Amino acid sequence: MKSITFNHQNTSAIGIGTWHIGEGNNKKTESEMAAIRYGLDHGINVIDTAEMYGEGKSETLVGNVIKNYNRQDFQLISKFYPYHATPKLIEESLKASLKRLQTDYLDLYLLHWRGQTPLVETVAGLERMVKAGLIRNWGVSNFDRKDLEELLSIPNGENCRINEDLYNIGSRGIEYSVLPWQKEHHMSFIGYSPFGSDDSEYLKIQPIVTEMAQQKHITVHQLLLGWVLRNHNLLSIPKTGSPEHMESNIEAVDVTFTADELEQLDKAYPAPKHEETLEMI
Is residue 25 part of a domain? Predict the structure, then answer.
């Protein structure tokens, strides 16, 4: 498994996303648990979840898997609702997540998206959880550059380790200023939904993608994930519901592109030429 520097650590090039995991019947749940085990057994060392996912069902499933693994061998990330962003509610949400995850700490705890609570209060609450030993570090999600600049202007805002935004070949808004800004400030980036969510619902597959995947003897999903990982400067967290798909995702880490192939894809899915409102799923 190729690795990147993420959260100041040596981390697998992809993580395990868990949106919609744990919401099906027993057969589906067993397949999802097997997928996570396959990933952990084959070099992936970061799992991303949230209290929002199935209102705790995702965290519960993840907890049932990781209880059989050495907790020091992987990073565990969860996120809290923006209406749980006060110091008191952060602590309550965190303790509930830890219970479902069957662990006594998180490596990263993220504000899922911005709400009405002032960032200064949220940061104060997160810093308190770090001091309590319940989280190692904290971050944010669905922040644009202006949000990130505001965050760094408040006390302890510079302690934000990561920002997680939508990123796939059809949603490239972060390339214009978010990624360069985070690189400048040594803040790691997570890109979610590399396939445009389930069944590419939020990503229109252009003919060039299908044609190129066939030429390279890979699947469309492997091409999409390989494209996201092409620069090796971010973590992508594809969600997977079966060991077979997890294996396919791991193989996509080794997908490479020629300059001509990247140019063809850029024509079909142009990079942003100006600041734009970031998309969210």
Answer: yes
Burial tier of 146 (Cβ tally within 10 Å: 0-12, 13-18, 19+): exposed
pLDDT at res. 48 = 98
* Contacts within 8 Å (CB) and 24+ apart, 92-96: 93/51, 94/129, 94/134, 94/135, 95/134, 96/51, 96/56
User: pLDDT confidence of 131, banded at 50, 70, 90?
Assistant: very high
Distance of alpha carbon 42 from alpha carbon 32, whole angstroms? 15
Longest dimension (CA), the chain: 54
User: What stretch of H or E contains 11?
Assistant: strand 9-12
> Which range marks the domain in which residue 188 is found?
3-268
- Domain membership of residue 278 (yes or no) is no
Is residue 279, in this structure, part of any structural domain at all?
Answer: no
Euclidean distance between CA atoms 142 and 229, whole angstroms: 19
What is the CATH number for 246? 3.20.20.100
Note the pLDDT of residue 51.
98
For 50: left if phi > 0, alpha if psi spans -120 to 50, otherwise beta; the answer is beta
Average pLDDT over residues 184-206: 87
Per-residue pLDDT reduced to its tens digit, 197-220: 755 567 999 999 999 999 999 999
112 is in an annotated binding site: yes
Rounded Cα gap, residues 124 and 92, in angstroms: 15
The domain total for the chain is 1
Positions marked catalytic: 53
Is residue 36 helix, strand or coil? helix
What are the residues whose beta carbons fall under 8 Å from the beta carbon of 190, sequence distance 6 or more? 15, 48, 77, 141, 162, 163, 164, 165, 234, 235, 236, 237
* Entry pTM: 0.95
